[in-house]
Amino acid sequence: MKTWTSEHVFDHPRETITTAAMQKYPNPTNPSVAGADVLDRHIDPSGKLHSHRLSTEWGLLTGAARTKTYKNILQEYSVEKTMELKSTNIPLTNMVSVDETLIYKPHPQAPETTVLTQGPTITMQGVSPSSYLEGLMASTISSNANKGQEAMERVTHRLNAETEELMALARGRIRTPTVAVAAFVGKQ
């Protein structure tokens, strides 16, 4: 079993980062993940938001075509000013189990920023040499974590631009919204 944690500070408030986390996929930084389907989302009596999503990826190659497969079960819990996301892989769980926890919360010394604490656990069963393979997977997961942070920055910048544009539109400063804002407004 291999476990470690890392931290990353986003220069954005927690509200923006948690919104970006919900809209992270699809993104060009990790094109293999097609999206995340919401299976259930509710608020419990204590006011805690629970969200269960299933991420999909176009990962299995069958001949010349790629097949949509389900990759992870994502369980999100949001309480007070903390969002916790737990991810468990679905394929090959009898051989390789990857459980990951991401916690987003305001930075204690700079509340206008957000701290991401990320901690995966990799467990291999019936595979030799498992410690070598766990190390390889750890390296891949670490690289993907950096890509995930880049994707979050990309989504955050898009959200900020859309918010600024909507605010300007509401104040009458611009007359014609961009395609992104027009699409957003059209969804309402």
Account of the protein in words:
This protein has about 190 residues and is of the alpha+beta class. The protein has a single domain (about 1-185), classed as 2-Layer Sandwich (Alpha-D-Glucose-1,6-Bisphosphate, Chain A, domain 4). It contains 3 helices and 8 strands, in the order E-E-H-E-E-E-E-E-E-H-H. The chain has helices at about 15-20, 130-170, 180-185, and strands spanning about 1-5, 5-10, 35-45, 50-60, 65-80, 80-90, 95-105, 115-125. Strands 1, 2, 3, 4, 5, 6, 7 and 8 form an 8-stranded antiparallel beta sheet that branches. It is elongated. The model is unreliable at about 60-65 (pLDDT under 50).
**Based on CA inertia axes, which overall geometry fits?**
elongated
Largest sheet properties: 8 strands, antiparallel
Structural class comes to alpha+beta
What is the domain tally? Answer: 1
Radius of gyration: 19 Å
The helix content is: 25-40%
What is the CATH C level class, in words? Alpha Beta
Assembly state: single chain
Task: State mean pLDDT (0 to 100 scale).
Answer: 78
Order of helices and strands: EEHEEEEEEHH
Within CATH, the superfamily carries the name: START domain
Could you name the CATH topology? Answer: Alpha-D-Glucose-1,6-Bisphosphate, Chain A, domain 4
